[in-house]
Design a protein that fits this description.
This protein is an all-alpha fold. The protein has 13 helices and no strands.
């Protein structure tokens, strides 16, 4: 027990735990919609798309969250513009903006005096540098994500499975899509301080994807994903403390490891069930009671 408790004797480790747990709540709720609707590539692009805004905020000395939000808005606007003005698929516009925004961010960061340090902090975060103010922001965002999921559950659900049906049901899919993107952007922007822009994607997609292997109903998937996310944060901090490695990266990789563990266990269970079913199944020549197949007793 001392091995588990010792890392959280320090105040900054406690703040990292609270901040990471709150971030995982918002990311797990929003990430469930991302996974169910197949928006992982867009989520990854948004994660990278906020980098120029953060870099500009560092250069001009204003709030990094505001910079990230502005960059995300530019990213979404650019994707919609390319999609409306060309015949390219949405994936093409996402790919173009993905690379362009990432490159622009690195160019802006290279203009800072502490290029390497700024780049590392923005990309990989600083879980141990979470402040009380960050925790308040993360708590507010987690609450917003929870309320939005409850209030817009039916429109989000209809949009995730069938956009045409959502239109017929009067849910206004374009507005619903915009709300979903706004919620995704908000959680990503609020969480980058904890695990960094690159690693936040692990907590956005990892817990919901793992939960989807274990549950079928969306509310259950969301609850399971939240538990997996919180566990990943706590386990990541414990492992990083004793192994003396990056806390942010360890938190982000935990749900990915859990996903493949669950996937492997489920595959093994499925194979065992198939073998058991084959053993219980009658052979082609003999019924289960030993009577030849197709045999009809005479009177």
């Amino acid at each position: 027990m001392d091995w588990l408790i010792e890392p959280f004797d320090l105040a900054f480790q406690q703040r990292a735990l609270f901040g990471g747990a709150l971030a995982s709540v918002g990311l797990s709720l929003v990430g469930t919609w991302v996974v169910v609707r197949g928006m992982s590539f867009l989520g990854d692009a948004l994660v990278h798309g906020v980098i120029p805004g953060i870099a500009l905020a560092v250069l001009l000395d204003f709030n990094t969250m505001l910079g990230a939000a502005l960059a995300a808005a530019v990213m979404i606007g650019g994707i919609n513009l390319v999609r409306r003005q060309t015949t390219f698929s949405e994936d093409t516009s996402i790919g173009l903006l993905f690379v362009g925004m990432l490159a622009l961010g690195v160019i802006l960061i290279s203009r800072t005096d502490s290029y390497q340090g700024s780049l590392t902090g923005i990309l990989f975060g600083d879980a141990l540098g979470v402040t009380a103010g960050d925790i308040r922001v993360l708590a507010a965002v987690a609450a917003i994500a929870l309320v939005a999921t409850i209030v817009f559950y039916r429109p989000f659900l209809a949009l995730s499975f069938n956009e045409q049906k959502a239109q017929l049901l009067g849910f206004r899919p374009k507005l619903t899509h915009a709300l979903m993107l706004s919620l995704m952007t908000l959680t990503i922007v609020a969480s980058f301080q904890t695990v960094g822009t690159l690693l936040v994607f692990g907590l956005l997609v990892g817990p919901p994807a793992t939960a989807a292997l274990l549950a079928r109903r969306l509310p259950t998937i969301m609850a399971t994903a939240t538990l997996i996310g919180v566990f990943s944060v706590a386990a990541g901090l414990v492992v990083s403390f004793h192994a003396d490695i990056s806390g942010s990266a360890t938190m982000a990789i935990m749900p990915i490891v859990l996903f493949f563990v669950v996937l492997g266990v489920r595959a093994a269970v499925d194979r065992a069930r198939q073998r058991a079913a084959q053993l219980d199944r009658p052979t082609s020549d003999t019924e289960s009671n030993g009577v030849p197949a197709g045999f009809t007793p005479t009177e």
